[in-house]
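A quick aside before the break. I want you to see a complete sequence-to-structure record at least once, exactly as it would be stored in a machine-readable document. Don't worry about memorizing anything.
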Amino acid sequence: MPCLQKGKVYDTASPALIVRVSAQAPLSAKVYELQKLRCNLCGQVFTAKAPEALGDEKYDSASGAMIALLKYGSGLPFNRLAQLQASLEVPLPASTQWEIVESVADKIYPVYRELIRKAAQGDVIHNDDTVMKILDRMNLPDEDRTGRSGMFTSGFMSIAHDTRIALFVTGHNHAGENMADILAKRSGALGPPIQMCDGLSRNIPKDFKVILANCLTHARRRFVEEQISFPKECEYVLKKLEKVYENDAHTKQKHMSPEQRLKYHQERSLPLMEDLKVWLAAQMDDKKTEPNSGLGQAISYMLKHFKELTLFLRVPKAPLDNNICEQTLKKAILHRKNSLFYKTCHGAYIGDLFMSLIHTCNLCNANPFEYLKTLQEHSSLVIKNPKKWMPWNFQEMICSEAAESNQILKI
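That is the input. The structure line, written in tokens, reads:
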């Protein structure tokens, strides 16, 4: 509408937006009809040539990336996706989906191995377990059993500087045993990493030295569970821990360095934790709390692991809790909730591979769909040098490849 005052108009920095949303099947298909001519004398049939750009592959790289992302990133089982595709008249059986993701994994597995090697170099490594089922390892005859019968998915979060790496490992081993396998790939020039886990002994690697930290949230949760029965005592503990977490939030808000954060906690949080330790010990020594009660067990747990629970007061970069690893394990829990199990150990390996890559992409603010698609399109280069095709640097390789192509065209 023209201005009635006849003034000048200027372009604004933010244009008006209109959004129209449409929908399509997760995997769409194009059908090409090629004309066929038949000779009426000899009976020979002549078929028109397919377009040159069509290629020989029925399923392109985007198809493999989409199926893997839906299955291992969003928890959509193969059978449900098959039903959805069939209802949209683009059939894609569950068996075909498995063949596709297995083929994709064969092309990109060096990146997963490199991801494990990179994770072993982390400054801080979080780990934890959740139960998982692998059908072909269940109900085995006694003569075929080796070791424990339980099965787990171990989740790891490795932090080195600003890079975060998520790893998943599924099998009979506990998190501590799987962490020992990872630390076997750690450079000898590096010192022991900070390990964050809960108080279970099975989370600690036996053959490698670590700087052990325990999860303060696990200790806090025990008091939360007893708050109804012991409101006064639990409120005292929770108020102290609340102030400690407020201090840690302040260090993050101010973007403090690890050394500045340590100094701040020593000034503000150390007195709080010392007072708390004295109070906890008095509850048990003065027999104010029954040791076998829920509150007594919560106090005993905190006193037993107090040194590991307060590592953040002595060591830079030491975290307060293991929440980030528990959030990571939700990927595996989502798969368990929707798909219930893995059929074979090989299927579990494929799941670990894709979940590790997808979740690491999310942590690095990389697009996991584009990443999986790119790895397939450059699989020959990925196999030769997987270090250059990690979630945090693959875009640089794409730009480098494009620049080299342009240079060749100019020549």
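Two observations worth writing down. The mean pLDDT is 91. The first strand starts at residue 36 and ends at 38. We'll return to this after the break.
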